[in-house]
């Protein structure tokens, strides 16, 4: 490790990464919820967003709870679009090299709806010590409760955790208020990868676009047209 890298990790026992937009990214956007949300009031859209991120309800169940009025055809189209997004996920450029070179363990904390969780299994390079996913723990960033889950899972004082992500409110301001240190993923990559001329900074796109597998895993959720993955 370089002197700069050592300085960044001085006093840090564990790193916690966001997932979408930080370690992996969707390369084909399909806005699967646009046809559904245009029928809803802004209040229902907000309710749907929150429930999708903090429960494991299916798309049909979510729509039933908020009385969104989706048809069967709407639900099928949304599920197919979600599966296409999951199937198009790739590692961000430099992530494989960064993770391989880390000298401390790391965990994950992500705002994630349940049908995007299968994307994580596509990347064996990502081997977190723990996963705090909003759909599983019932709360989402930047709520204090999800950072409490992170600190408990890490098993170290908050001041010895470095949170890394791509969203200001969720990954920088929230963790800082919770007592953690925080850094934007772009800065992390500059420090740990970009300075090495031998590293290939092209996105890793060798993952098969396996839509049938992704579709079987999809049960219906929300896509990033509502900015729910952070």
Automatic annotation (TrEMBL):
One of its GO terms (molecular function) is hydrolase activity. The keyword Hydrolase applies. Keywords: Hydrolase. Pfam families: Hydrolase (PF00702). InterPro entries: HAD-like_sf (IPR036412), HAD-SF_hydro_IA (IPR006439), HAD_sf (IPR023214), S-2-haloacid_dehalogenase (IPR051540). NCBIfam families: HAD-SF-IA-v1, HAD-SF-IA-v3. This is HAD family hydrolase.
């Amino acid at each position: 490790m370089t002197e700069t890298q050592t300085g960044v990790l001085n006093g840090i026992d564990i790193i916690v990464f966001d997932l979408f937009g930080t370690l992996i990214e969707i390369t084909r956007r399909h806005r699967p919820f646009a046809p559904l949300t245009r029928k809803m009031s802004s209040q229902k859209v907000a309710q749907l967003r929150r429930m999708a991120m903090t429960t494991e309800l299916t798309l049909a169940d979510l729509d039933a709870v908020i009385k969104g009025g989706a048809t069967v055809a709407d639900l099928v189209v949304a599920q197919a679009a979600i599966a296409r997004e999951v199937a198009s996920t790739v590692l961000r450029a430099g992530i494989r090299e960064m993770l391989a070179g880390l000298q401390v363990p790391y965990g994950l904390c992500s705002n994630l709806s349940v049908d995007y969780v299968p994307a994580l299994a596509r990347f064996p390079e990502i081997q977190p010590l723990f996963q705090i996913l909003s759909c599983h723990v019932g709360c989402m960033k930047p709520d204090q409760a999800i950072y409490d889950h992170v600190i408990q899972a890490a098993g170290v004082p908050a001041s010895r955790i470095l949170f890394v992500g791509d969203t200001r409110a969720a990954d920088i301001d929230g963790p800082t208020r919770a007592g953690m240190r925080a850094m934007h993923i772009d800065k992390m990559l500059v420090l740990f990868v970009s300075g090495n001329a031998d590293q290939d900074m092209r996105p890793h796109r060798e993952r098969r676009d396996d839509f049938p597998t992704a579709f079987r895993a999809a049960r219906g959720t929300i896509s990033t047209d509502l900015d729910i993955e952070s």
